[in-house]
Amino acid sequence: MAKRVQEDKTNVQGRVPIVAILGHVDHGKTTILDYIRKTNVQGCEVGGITQKISVFTVSINNDPSKRITFIDTPGHEAFDLMRVRGGSIADIVLLIVAANDGVKPQTIESIDIIKKSSAKPIVVINKVDLPDIDIAKIKREIVKEGLLLEGMGGNVPVIEVSGKTGKGIPELLDLITLVADVEGLADREQLSNGVVAKAYVLESIKDKTRGNVSSLVVVNGNLCKGSWIGYSKEGKIIVERIKGVISEDGENICDLQCGCGGKVIGVSNLISVGSEVYILEENNPKLIEPLFKTDSKNDDTAIAEDDMFGSIFDSQSDNKNTQLNVVIKSSSQGSLEALKHSLEEIKKDEYSVNIVKDGVGDISNMDIDMAKLSKAIVLGFEVGMDKSTEEFARKNGVLVRTYQIIYKLLEEVEDALDMLSAPKQTEE
Ligand code: GDP
């Protein structure tokens, strides 16, 4: 394995381009990523036979100089969070638009994020295998939202694909390498003395056997097993030894190159999604202190429990928002599906529930982060959260409610929507 890593270092690009993928739900992001992953050689020791993959690297035509890392951010909010915190994690961002559906709310949201990001966009029109589609119309809709496409007054490349049949996917991969070659990769700051790598956390979970596991993508330098990892936890810098770096299928990796992804295991905290971590030569928090200077700005935003509901609703009604944003966590996939279905059915006048994130398992700091960013409340069914997450939620002013009975949860959400729609009814 070491030999292969050594060979990889001859990569002409110096590092592997990192590609993120955005777009409206059901427009085919997962299908496209799965197709790419299955049909191309894995290039960074990060395999992928397990459920959900948050980062993987492929080698096109088995050529180590043509590698691409794809990151699957758990939602637009997480991508935006990384953008806000770290400039840009991705070099290139794909905007997926389904040919049969066109521009939808999350497409517009993605375009807004893309405009603010320094990542180079590529528009991918998917599902072109379907009949009766009008691609010219979709392109016009995209341009109308301010993303100027090639041949239509701008220089954003656009490509037509089918994630289902694979049509256009090899061309998409070539286009990604071309954009990376021609436009160059995002600038990465010089790492300071004693810091050997910088990575972003894409996912953090508590694993029964391995403890805290964080999926990372390395954006600068090289992450090596046995080094020290430094990160910020509630404004405090923590440095500890990495117990191991593993691939998606649990294999130990001895080296993780820039642009590649993997998982670190056995870190004593669940590191927040979207946050940066550093790999250090020695156990010395001073090495990274200056890098976290701006991180403490939210430390004093703790608000009283009672004010939380109020603040969520205030912010939502002020914005004339007719949706109650929620993050839901449930004990099993079955109960989660049932819950999602029931929540989507609840409507009060024009008010409804918008699920910004859902998942199985205990409530994590990542859920809190997401809720904060999207002004959402967190609802848990038959799940818990540890003390530190509770504290993290309190500090960030995020309301968390947990339930043991589904109808209780639904009842409270209905009440909440009643509250949201109440002022309007009074006016009438
Ligand atoms: P995501 O929510 O953006 O990740 O969308 P998914 O990848 O889950 O796809 C949503 C649905 O669209 C699934 O039923 C896919 O099988 C289907 N789909 C995705 N890509 C294509 C495509 O290129 N053609 C057709 N006909 N269906 C597709």
Structural summary, described in words:
The structure is a single chain. With 428 residues, this protein is of the alpha/beta class. It has 11 helices and 21 strands. The chain has helices at residues 2-8, 29-39, 76-86, 105-116, 135-144, 169-183, 305-318, 333-345, 365-373, 387-396, 406-427, and strands spanning 18-23, 41-42, 55-59, 67-71, 92-98, 120-126, 158-160, 195-207, 211-221, 223-224, 228-233, 236-241, 244-246, 255-256, 261-267, 276-280, 323-330, 347-348, 351-360, 377-381, 400-403. It has a 7-stranded mixed β-sheet. A 7-stranded antiparallel β-sheet has the order 12-11-16-8-9-15-13. β18 and β19 form a beta hairpin. α3 (76-86) packs parallel to α4 and α9 (365-373) runs parallel beside α10. The longest helix is centred in the C-terminal third of the chain and has 22 residues, at 406-427.
Strand elements, count: 21
Largest sheet: 7 strands, mixed
Please give the share of residues in helix.
25-40%
- Distance linking N and C termini: 71 Å
Any idea what the radius of gyration is? Answer: 22 Å
Low-confidence stretches: 1-13, 45-51, 294-311, 313-319, 424-428
Bound molecules: guanosine-5'-diphosphate
Structural class: alpha/beta
Please state how the strands of the largest beta sheet are arranged side by side.
2-3-4-1-5-6-7
* Total number of helices: 11
Whole-number mean pLDDT:
79
What percent of residues are in strands? 25-35%
Shape: globular
